[in-house]
């Protein structure tokens, strides 16, 4: 396993939606454990986010659960 920067919070450990809340993808650590070698998620391109076409907002990628990395 490898520790890599969380794509959802950009490694800050703070949720973008609620600036006082810990990131719910990495639990506030700023990093996530992924299989070695780390590979960007093919669905979101490593951003951890996709655009919800219904409301045109960013949501967590279902392929990587917001981490930005393939599992």
- The proportion of residues forming helix, as a percent range, comes to under 10%
What is the count of DSSP helices, taking H or I runs of 4+ residues?
Answer: 0
Structural class: mainly beta
Which residues sit in consecutive blocks of at least 5 with pLDDT less than 50? none
Q: List SSEs in N-to-C order.
A: EEEE
Topology of this protein?
Elements lengths: L1 E4 L25 E4 L14 E4 L4 E4 L11
Short description:
By secondary structure, the protein is an all-beta fold.
Output the keywords.
71 residues; mainly beta; two-stranded antiparallel ribbon; 0% helix; flat
Overall description:
This protein has 71 residues and is an all-beta fold. Helices cover 0% and strands 23% of the residues. It contains no helices and 4 strands. The chain has strands at residues 2-5, 31-34, 49-52, 57-60. A two-stranded antiparallel ribbon has the order 1-2. A two-stranded antiparallel sheet has the order 3-4. It is flat and about 35 Å long.
């Amino acid at each position: 396993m490898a520790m890599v920067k969380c794509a959802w919070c950009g490694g800050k450990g703070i949720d973008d939606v609620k600036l006082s809340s810990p990131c719910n993808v990495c639990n506030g650590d700023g990093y996530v454990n992924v299989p070695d070698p780390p590979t960007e998620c093919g669905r979101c391109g490593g951003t951890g986010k996709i655009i919800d076409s219904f409301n045109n907002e960013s949501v967590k990628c279902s392929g990587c659960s917001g981490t930005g990395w393939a599992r």
